[in-house]
Each structure stands twice: as C-alpha cells, then as structure tokens.
Amino acid sequence: MNKDIKSILLSEEKIAELTDALxxxxxxxxxxxxxLFVIILKGSVVFAADLLRRLTVNVKxxxxxxxxxxxxxxxxxxxxxxKDIENDAAGKNVLIVEDIVDSGNTLFKLKKLFEERNAASVxxxxxxxxxxxxxxxxxCEYVGAEIPDEFVVGYGLDYNEQYRNLPYxxxxxxxxxxx
Length: 179
Ligand code: IMP
Ligand code: MG
What we know:
Order of helices and strands: EHEHEEEHEEEEH
Oligomer: single chain
Radius of gyration: 16 Å
Bound molecules: inosinic acid, magnesium ion
Mean pLDDT: 94
C-alpha cells in the first residue's frame, strides 16, 4: 500500500463489482438508445474507461473539464467550463460520468447546461457520492457507492494531482493534507 494511505476504502475487486452493476443498469436503460458519454476530466478517466468497456449500447464519448473557483479543498459553488465537448448535445441522450459527487455544485451546473442545450435526456453516473456534503439537490441516477465524509484518492481521484494512478480507492492520511 502507498505510504500516504491510511486505509483502503474500496479494493480493485470491489470497484469492479460496482462498475459491473452500473454497466448492467445503463445497458438496460439505454438498450435502444444512442448514448453520449460525457467524461468529466480529469478524475473520471479511470472509472470511465472501465465502465465504457462494459457497455454494450451504442455509445459516443466526449470530454469536458470544469473547475470550481476558490481553494482546492472547499467548493465555492461557482463553476467554470475549462474544456467543452465537441459533439452537439441537442437531441442526444447525455450521460455525465463523474468520479465523485461532493457538494454537487459541479454536476448541478453541468446538468443544467446540457438541459439548456436541449439534450433529449441528461443523467449522471458517478462512482462515488458523499451525501453528507451535498449543498444542492442534484439528482444522480447511477451511483456506485455512497461513502462517508473523508477525503479519498486513487482510481483517478487526486490530491494536488497525485495518487490518480493507485488501482484502489484509499483514505489519505490527515498529515498529508494538513488535516
Ligand atoms: P463538487 O462540485 O463539490 O461536487 O465537487 C466534485 C469534485 O470535487 C470531484 O469531481 C473531485 O474532483 C473533487 N472531490 C470531492 N471530494 C473528493 C475526494 O474525496 N477526493 C478527491 N477529489 C474530491
Ligand atoms: Mg479533483
């Protein structure tokens, strides 16, 4: 285990199980539809790549990057689009793929944006959710697991751009982030 990790919250095996279950639901719900799979950079890339390989539906992928203003550890509620998708979302069944929903501010804004662009449908798939931290009432249709309010890294999730390469999701030692 990495020296900065206090404990493993989700093992590789557990993540694979959760991803299998999410893919099953998505394959069922979009069986006769075309999907625009919008991957939110950067944290979602590992999860999205694993989920994508389990999809049997007709799917196109695209990428988007959003950033919250303010400090890195506290979400400010105002969200900026740093990179937008290349596809026209109008009339498409958009599935936003996220690593973790915390305050929900990012996804609240992105969901609204795709609705304004006249997508046929807009749903959210997130591997993780921290319900205790929610500041908006954004609905996430597909959630891998709800987790407690602890800062986690690995499997795409970072702290200061580090630890994204860990194959599991772990809780960071508080001394690493000065907590
Ligand atoms: P929200 O807008 O507050 O929901 O912010 C969601 C974003 O915050 C995620 O896409 C992550 O980049 C980041 N984030 C929230 N919690 C964690 C965590 O525990 N570890 C790593 N990144 C996190
Ligand atoms: Mg991040």
